[in-house]
Every structure is written in structure tokens, then in C-alpha cells.
Amino acid sequence: TADEAEDLMNKFVQTQNDGIITVDTYARNIGKVAPVASMMGLKLEEVNAVIAQSTANGVNAEVAFTGLKTALLRLGGEAGGKKLEKLGIDISAATLASEGLLANLKKLEGLDVTALEQIFGQEAIQTMAPVLNNLEKFEKLLFNQKNAAAVAAKAHEIANNTIQAKWTRISNVMSNMFADQTVLGEALKATLHGLGNALIRFITLFETLARAVKNTIEFI
Asked: Positive or negative CA dihedral for 72, 73, 78, 84?
């Protein structure tokens, strides 16, 4: 629905605002993680918050999306589950869906880099390290996502207030005023036609005078 589309766009723009990523890049890469996140019951704002925090800390956008997909599979899959179980940590696809990503990541607090790398793998740890290092920031980004109403509209308003946007608007208005089939357009065409005819007559007269001067000079 229109309301749902607006809500999604607000979240996309909020991700752009909080991270280092454009909506275009987001659109080209969200498909890498969306099916896995949906299958595990994660919410879009959780995915967006990870992407925003990860890219804001210098992780390439494509790496962030791929890494998050791997991280979710490790946390909710069998291989990662066995390693978590050995550490006495209860994280699974079921807990991710019921408790949310933030609550499950808090269970990993206190683990060293070696343990985290064993859980996530080298690819996913790049994406998750900025989040795990600052879960308070992650919680704030989640809050931003949940309260992203009218963010896209505000961004559009700011863009429209630029000098370039104002000039483009004036150009469009002028173009529409003098477009074909409009009164001003027809008047302008008639005016230009008249000016063209007058210019042709002037050039013809000038050529006649120039020719007379040339003949006179040659005679002398």
C-alpha cells in the first residue's frame, strides 16, 4: 500500500542518513540479506541499523550486506549453534525471531576476538565488529529506524530548497509557459516568425547596399 511504501522509503533514507551508503547502493544490495533475515523473523529496521552502523565505520556497503547474511546464518544455523552451545550461549533462529537481534547480540558481550571470529567467520566479523563494539549505538540506530516517519519527505524538502532545484523549477515553469499549443507558445512562435522575416529583409537590403558599395569601389 502507499502507507507501507512510504514507511519503507523512510527507513531507506534513515539508513542513508545514519550510515555511509546511498539509497541506490542499498537497493542494489538489500536482496543479498533480505530473504535470510525474513526467514529468521528479523525486522527490516534491525537489518538497516546493522548496515548503517557498519558502513558508518568504514565497511564497504556490499561487504556489509554479505557479511550480515553470513552472520545471521552463523547465529541461526547448525554450525554456529554448536559453537555457541559450547560457550553456553543460547542463540538460535528461534531466539532471533522471538527476542530480536539486539537482545541476542548482548549475549555475546565479553567474548574475545578469537571466540567471535569462530562464531561469525572472517567475512561476517567485519560487518558485526562495529556493532558488537558499540551496542548502545546500535540501539540508538534501531530507535531512529522505528521513528523514521517523514524522513524521506524532509529530505525531499531540503533538496527542493537548493539553488539548483529553484533554478530547475523556474526553467520548467518557463518551458511550460512557452510550450507548443499554449497561448504564449503560439504568440512566441508568431513573434519569432515575424522577426525572422524582418531579419531576412534587412539582410537582403544590406547585401544590396554592400554590392553597390563594392561596385563603386571597383569602378573608382
From this structure: negative
